[in-house]
Request: fold
Amino acid sequence: MMANTSYFDLFGRDHLLTMLLILVACVALPLFVRRARSTGIERSVAATLCIVLLLNEALKFAARILVYKLPVEEQLPLHLCAATAFLVAYMLMRRSYAVFEVAYFWAMGGTLQAILTPDLQAPFPSLYYMVFFFGHGVVMLGVAYAIVVFRFRPTLKSIVKAMAALAAYATVIAPLNWLLGTNYLYLCHKPAGTSLIDYLAPWPWYIASLGLIAAVSFVIWWLPFGLLKLRSRQS
Reply:
């Protein structure tokens, strides 16, 4: 049984088991659907994941407002992980490779980072904890589904598209932060929880570092596909 503490324990037993469950789901479900070789099952599971993602975003918003009484302006679905959830939901429903090109890198560079080092204080089994990890986990599951079932693959051009989309999104969010007094995309200050951003320079210099880190991480997450493609050409 998972321990019940009054605080979130980074890389504690609850956190590690949660990440393990997400990993198992990301491997097992796509492989099951692919081996079933049924167009009906493939579409049904994709549609179900899409609906689950959208419902989870709605539940997350409602829980933070109604249960935790957090300010509405700070709980809008504008953080990168929320935007990625909507992208993945659309990608699954429309089987859109163009959206996958952006969603893949945003998920691997942002959502995965949020799972590993979440900006979270609530412990298991709080509603906040469950909704947070469930939503992020389904985003990763959706990306794994696109790779295994849809057989989508990112390319070098996909990196450019994902970086351009990220820059455009940040350009839109920056003035909204100023108007609302919020910190979406962590453009105004570092997150309260422990994260890799803590090791970067102070504001605003860490923002440039985040852009560089995003570019490097996108290349790293493309590399396995690039190497596999190169190997297939040589064989």
In short: The helical segments are 13-36, 39-67, 80-94, 97-116, 127-148, 156-180, 205-234.
